Amino acid sequence: MTPHGARAGEEDLDVEEVLALVRNSNGNQPSEPAGRGEADSTRPPHRPDPRHHATAWPQARAIAERTARSTARAARRAPVSAPLEAALGLTLATPLDALTDLPSFDTSAMDGWAVAGPAPWDVRDEGVLAGHSTPAPLTDGGAVRIATGARIPPDTTAVLRSEHGRTDATGRLYATRDIAPGQDIRPRGQECRSGDQLLPVGTLVTPAVLGLAAAAGYDTVEAVPRPRAEVLVLGDELLSEGLPHDGLIRDALGPMLPPWLRALGAEVIAVRRVRDDAGVLRRAITSSDADVIVTTGGTAAGPVDHVHPTLSRIGAELLVDGVQVRPGHPMLLARTTETQHLVGLPGNPLAAVSALLTLAEPLLRTLAARPAPEPYTWPLRDAVQGHPHDTRLVPVVLRGDEAIPLHYNGPAMLRGIAAADALAVVPPGGTRPGQEAELLDLPWASAGIGVCFT
Ligand SMILES: Nc1nc2c(c(=O)[nH]1)N[C@H]1C(S)=C(S)[C@@H](COP(=O)(O)OP(=O)(O)OC[C@H]3O[C@@H](n4cnc5c(N)ncnc54)[C@H](O)[C@@H]3O)O[C@H]1N2
Ligand code: MOO
Question: By residue range, what is the domain housing residue 95?
């Protein structure tokens, strides 16, 4: 594995600059109708050559990130005060400064005796347990039974572990090995002083961050709110239960997308089935107050593929109209209002995954103010056939220090991705056995279901 090193510095671009970048990259005026808008009768009903519009894969991801950054700046969403139990997966909007010294008092690190002065020691009758208030001071030659986590009595020299002490017939305590002054005492403020910065703005709230926040005295943390996402599942052929029959198939994306979008930082406010009707789709889009609308299907140029004409009719700006990636090349990204984006995922399920990781991931991550993952590469055990011009995303499992490409990676298949640890980014032309390729992690593969899906 070879980390690429730090990401190239992403300069702050505003929306105009992003749009200019799109114009330059694919010759397409993003503010123009998408290409087959009913509003523009001078245009042919089908886009003549999708490849002509398609954005290179790395650039598509950069556009998604940049438009999210400029929208986040424009929208200035106020931080929320999140109770710890609701903060997992959010990003800190203010630094986590210690509200107390840690430890907040001198603490015994071991079960044993607090002792004062040299051995032997007379042991007090009553011991000190964790949670007790300040115990009485010791005097030279004195000792007291103490539990791990208990407050150290004033004038204690050290803590003698229970396994390193013995008492004689008269009950006097001796050490079976040397103990140094201060041994097994955690002094107040050893980890931090009140006011110390424990974590900076922008830190992802993990289970460990929740623990640290609680230890440091927090009941709530100031965090960036999750971007609100609404999923519109298009397609009259979809069933929500039972076996496929009579040309109807099960909706695979309705169940898959909400948890995946949550893992990417979104709050999923609704999942709606939308029938193949341009008016219904239009109303569904224009009535949504989500930050990000995610549609599935209808991105191509078939008779009931209503996404492009609808975006055109509502005056949305197409920032990405097709990406040079397989599967998923008809994917799109549009800005529907000043503060709202739409990600069009193709209907083929693995193509939808590809679009999710290409466009939705950088968009949601940036809106959620999450840190960008460090890109990394991994050797692919087997040769992978490449597309002549486009990037391929191929499901892989990680075994030892190799990534093994999986079969069943066709656009309509989920069998490969369901078994995968990551997606390999295969450049045009393919890879040789042992050649390194960038990997895109799947959120559950590295973070665990409970962590990333809450
Ligand atoms: N003439 C062309 N046809 C197609 C092209 C092309 O370039 N020229 N591209 C193909 C590619 S590549 C893809 S990907 C698809 C994208 O199509 P759409 O986004 O319009 O999706 P649909 O046509 O609605 O569906 C495609 C396929 O996926 C199935 N589907 C849809 N939704 C779901 C779902 N929620 N769960 C499971 N399966 C779903 C749907 O039944 C179709 O089989 O276009 C190609 N065509
Ligand atoms: O983008 Mo499509 O998935 O190649 O079938």
Answer: 81-100+192-223
Q: What is the ipTM of this complex?
A: 0.98
Residues 314 and 243 in one domain: yes
pLDDT-derived band at 423, boundaries 50, 70, 90: very high
Q: Which amino acid, one-letter code, is at 127?
A: G
Q: Are residues 202 and 94 in the same domain?
A: yes
The model's confidence at residue 51, banded by pLDDT at 50, 70 and 90, is low
Tell me the per-residue pLDDT of 250-265, one tens digit each, with 9 for 90 and over.
999 999 999 999 999 9
Ligand 2 center–CA 48 separation, angstroms: 18
Same domain, 236 and 340: yes
Average of pLDDT values for 288-301?
96
Q: How far is CA 323 from CA 312, 328, 369, in A?
A: 19, 8, 25
Predicted local distance difference test score (pLDDT) of residue 132: 84
Could you tell me if 276 and 358 lie in one domain?
yes
- Are 344 and 391 contained in the same domain? no
What value does the mean pLDDT take over residues 322-333?
98
Let me know: does 275 contact 325? Beta carbons within 8 Å: no
Enumerate residues lining ligand 1, CB below 6 A: 50, 233, 235, 237-238, 249, 251-253, 296-302, 305, 327, 329-330, 346-349, 351, 411
Ligand 2 mutation pick, 326, 331, 387, 408, max ligand atoms within 8 A of CB: 326
Q: Find the Cα–Cα–Cα–Cα dihedral 414, 419, 425, 428, rounded to 10°.
A: -60
Average pLDDT in the chain: 88
Residues 62 and 85 in one domain: no
* Residue of 408, 400, 403, 448 whose CA lies nearest to 425: 403
Q: Taking each helix axis from N to C terminus, what angle separates 15-26 and 57-75, rounded to the nearest 10 degrees?
A: 160
Question: What would the pLDDT profile of 113-162 be if each residue is shown by its tens digit?
Answer: 999 999 999 999 999 898 888 899 999 999 999 999 999 999 999 999 99
> Do 311 and 288 fall within a single domain?
yes
